[in-house]
Amino acid sequence: MIPTTLSLVVPAAFIHASWNILLKRVQGGLSFLWFVDILQSLVFAPWIAWVIYRENPALGVVEWFFIVGSAIMPLCTSPIISFFNVVTGEVTFP
To answer: How far is CA 28 from CA 8, 43, 64, in A?
Structure first.
């Protein structure tokens, strides 16, 4: 594996594992998931704005649709996951 790839995959695995442990310990439910999703969007927004400013890409309607959709999608999937947990009694999300 290329060192650059490894330097991205290993921290991502640790972040993912830490997220799962934290979510299981706090048992915050849907409100906690929404809080983290909104916080995540706010944290990454300046970086995304900087990249758009710096690179000055030609962004059309389709590109903006996917940019905004990727920020909104986690907020829509959290209630669906919670509903599925209630209906089936299973844990699909820690």
So the answer is: 29, 20, 32
Q: Which residue has the higher pLDDT, 53 or 19?
A: 53
40, 60, 87 from 81: Cα distances, Å = 18, 32, 10
> Is the pLDDT assigned to residue 30 strictly greater than 60?
yes
- What mean pLDDT do residues 44-50 have? 83
Q: Are 46 and 9 in contact, with CB atoms under 8 Å apart?
A: no
The residues, ordered by sequence, that sit 6+ positions from 38 with a Cβ below 8 Å of its Cβ are 75
CB distance 24 to 93 below 8 Å: no
Looking at residues 61-87, what average pLDDT do you find?
77
